[in-house]
Amino acid sequence: MISTKTTLGAALASAMMLGACTDPAQLGMEDGNPNQNRNQGALIGAASGAVLGALVSDDGDRGDGALIGAVLGGAVGAGVGYSLDKQEAELRQQMGSNVVITNTGDRLIVTLPQDILFATDSTALQPALIGDLRALAQNVQIYANSTLQIVGHTDSDGDAAYNQQLSEDRARAVAGVLLQNGVPQGRIQTFGRGESQPVASNLTPQGKQQNRRVEIVILPNA
């Protein structure tokens, strides 16, 4: 019988081997290791699978359950990571340079600056970004096994309650374009975070500009 300690040690060793496949000098999103996110997905899947396998196994079989869970989870995670890498590359070709795409290995985050999405205090989308949202809608219909979380954010100027409502309305406006272009409503969730989740300082104009954004989080379904 394989002990839990032995199993966890094996899982850790596997994680280290996968991590070693990524050169720290090649961590840029566009110029980095093409297998980076596949490997990261495998690591995430293996760790989750090991924990789940141990939890659902009988006391005497926890080591075996963790090992099996790690192997299966790693395989699934690697597949998710590979699919996200492919989807990311296609989105970069299809969408404009103003759009920022971040691949974390288990999800894609498409960030749209609100300054080019909306006029000040408006929830009406600017025509310049409609084409990008249409391209995104077409892409996520090809990669259909995912949920889209659309999250609006503002800077700290003005009343917090007003900013919260504005962020919710802007998230719904972006969702509306995706719905109009064929994305099923059941795949879309909208949220407003107001000024509560800044990514930069609200003490400078540049920071405020970064904080005014809509994020579309593409989450692969389990």
From TrEMBL:
Pfam families: Gly-zipper_YMGG, OmpA. Residues 105-222 form the OmpA-like domain. Keywords: Cell outer membrane, Membrane, Signal. It comes from Sulfitobacter aestuariivivens. Gene3D superfamilies: OmpA-like domain. GO terms for cellular component: cell outer membrane. This is OmpA family protein. It is found in: Cell outer membrane. Residues 1-25 form the signal peptide. The keyword Membrane applies.
